[in-house]
């Protein structure tokens, strides 16, 4: 019998489950899909049978919980002959948002690991329970199948104390686990490795600033493949301006909003996480729409863009100081991969740091990793499409293989 060589990657959110089935022999996708509106009215499952080259299948039905969602995934995969019972399946790899200080590596799921992820729920009250329900349901469906938890925080575990510890009372911080953890780690790790490959240099020899600009956005400073600082903190709220999150803000603004504005803590949480950032500044959180409005002369859209790119520039400058020498600045995720205007504005005026964008190369659209700085520039500016699913699959597969 041939070795099992497929990995199912699951990203279970609070109301959706995204999945991809990968063949590890060549990293190809066999199937992918998303179950949306779990626990809400009008659930929907969209399934792409990639290996078969078939039509996308959409099933509209109530999906009361994650168990129902994963049963639906299992049915659709079985319909393609790729079911969870297939002996070709080597593992399920789960994206788990918060690993705290406990999990710094991909980890084989056991009863103890489930309990420890459960203990971290106070740090990620929306995400970790959803991630755990995915793990539990797969355990019921295929108890013998190895499952691997790949943590969004793990790549940032190397950030030194000087960058990870907040300057607040030590005992309070430690008792309540308040420190910088960082997120999007799988993406920062994948993109820094791909960037070194693109430059044709060993990862150990290059310093890279990675800018992951999706709906959520984060920056990291990676020295020789090791993360030394990152912009998200205890939660994904800190750092860059994002689609709906404020990023950095004076913490005393929260006291002001509460004491003077009369907003309750949950209202402020909602304001800063879901109604701020680009959306709060101009009413749109999609950079494409902001681009269109700017072209029509819309002042709020222009200001939102300026605030967004100014914050980026500030972090690039900070991470130049952190790294000392910067070999590459890599842009990734929806905005980073697709918006020449953001890349240009974020790096404008940094020629003195050896960082510049070639306007012609930057304007070229494409899905391949590419360099968009002039050939003679000291620092390469790169556009490197992220692939968190492939990274999760690789880490899961190599862990399962190493266990023999
Ligand atoms: P998520 O964090 O949800 O994974 P993505 O990485 O998919 O997000 O990024 C989503 C964002 O990418 C959208 O908000 C949109 O603004 C932006 N985006 C996608 N395509 C383009 C484009 N062609 N130009 C500018 N921005 C884009």
Strand and helix map with partners:
Elements: E1 6-12, E2 17-23, E3 28-36, E4 44-48, E5 57-60, H1 66-79, E6 89-96, E7 107-108, H2 111-119, H3 127-141, E8 147-151, H4 161-164, H5 170-175, H6 185-199, E9 207-213, E10 217-223, E11 226-230, H7 252-259, H8 265-274, H9 277-282, H10 287-295, H11 299-323, E12 328-332, H12 333-338, H13 340-347, H14 359-363, E13 370-371, E14 380-383, H15 388-402
Parallel strand pairs: 1-6, 6-8, 9-12, 12-14
Antiparallel strand pairs: 1-2, 2-3, 3-4, 4-5, 7-8, 9-10, 10-11, 13-14
Bound molecules: adenosine-5'-diphosphate.
Tell me about this structure.
It is a single chain. Helices cover 38% and strands 19% of the residues. The strands form 2 sheets. An 8-stranded mixed sheet has the order 5-4-3-2-1-6-8-7, with helices on both faces. The longest helix has 25 residues, at 299-323. 43% of the residues are buried. The protein has 404 residues and is of the alpha/beta class. It has helices at residues 66-79, 111-119, 127-141, 161-164, 170-175, 185-199, 252-259, 265-274, 277-282, 287-295, 299-323, 333-338, 340-347, 359-363, 388-402, and strands spanning 6-12, 17-23, 28-36, 44-48, 57-60, 89-96, 107-108, 147-151, 207-213, 217-223, 226-230, 328-332, 370-371, 380-383. The mean pLDDT is 96. The chain folds into 2 domains: 6-151, ATPase, nucleotide binding domain (Nucleotidyltransferase, domain 5, 2-Layer Sandwich); 200-388, 2-Layer Sandwich (Nucleotidyltransferase, domain 5), CATH 3.30.420.40. The chain starts with 5 loop residues before the first strand and ends with a helix. It binds adenosine-5'-diphosphate. Adenosine-5'-diphosphate binds at residues 214-216, 243, 285-288, 333-335, 338-339. ATP binds at residues 18, 212-216, 286-288, 334-338. It catalyses: acetate + ATP = acetyl phosphate + ADP.
């Amino acid at each position: 019998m041939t070795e099992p060589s497929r990995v199912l990657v699951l990203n279970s959110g609070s109301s959706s489950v995204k999945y991809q089935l990968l063949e590890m022999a060549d990293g190809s996708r066999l199937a992918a899909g998303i179950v949306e509106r779990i626990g809400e009215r009008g659930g929907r499952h969209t399934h792409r049978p990639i290996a078969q080259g078939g039509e996308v299948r959409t099933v509209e039905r109530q999906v009361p919980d994650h168990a129902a969602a994963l049963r639906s995934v299992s049915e659709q995969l079985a319909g393609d002959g790729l079911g969870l019972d297939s002996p070709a399946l080597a593992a399920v790899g789960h994206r788990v948002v918060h690993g705290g200080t406990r999990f710094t590596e991909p980890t084989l799921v056991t009863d103890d690991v489930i309990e420890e992820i459960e203990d971290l729920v106070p740090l990620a009250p929306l995400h970790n329970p959803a991630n755990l329900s995915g793990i539990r349901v797969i355990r019921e469906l295929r108890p013998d199948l190895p499952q691997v938890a790949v943590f969004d925080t793990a790549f940032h575990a190397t950030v030194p104390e000087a960058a990870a510890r907040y300057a607040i009372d030590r005992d309070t911080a430690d008792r309540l686990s308040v420190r910088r953890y960082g997120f999007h780690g799988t993406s920062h790790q994948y993109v820094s490795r791909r960037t070194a490959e693109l430059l044709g240099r060993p990862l150990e020899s290059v310093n890279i600033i990675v800018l992951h600009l999706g709906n959520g956005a984060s920056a990291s400073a990676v020295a020789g493949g090791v993360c030394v600082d990152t912009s998200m903190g205890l939660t994904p709220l800190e750092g860059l301006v994002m689609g709906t999150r404020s990023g950095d803000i004076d913490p005393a603004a929260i006291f002001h909003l509460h004491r003077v504005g009369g907003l309750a803590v949950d209202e402020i949480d909602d304001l800063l996480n879901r109604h701020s950032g680009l959306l709060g500044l101009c009413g749109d959180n999609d950079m494409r729409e902001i681009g269109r409005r700017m072209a029509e002369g819309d002042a709020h859209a222009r200001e939102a863009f300026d605030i967004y790119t100014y914050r980026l520039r500030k972090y690039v400058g900070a991470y130049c100081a952190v790294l000392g020498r910067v070999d590459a600045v890599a842009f990734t995720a929806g905005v980073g991969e697709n918006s020449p205007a953001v890349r240009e504005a974020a790096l404008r005026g940094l020629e003195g740091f050896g960082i510049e964008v070639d306007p012609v190369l930057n304007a070229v659209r494409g899905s391949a990793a590419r360099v968009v700085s002039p050939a003679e520039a000291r620092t390469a500016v790169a556009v490197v499409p992220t692939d968190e699913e492939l990274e999760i699959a690789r880490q899961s597969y190599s862990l399962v293989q190493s266990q023999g």
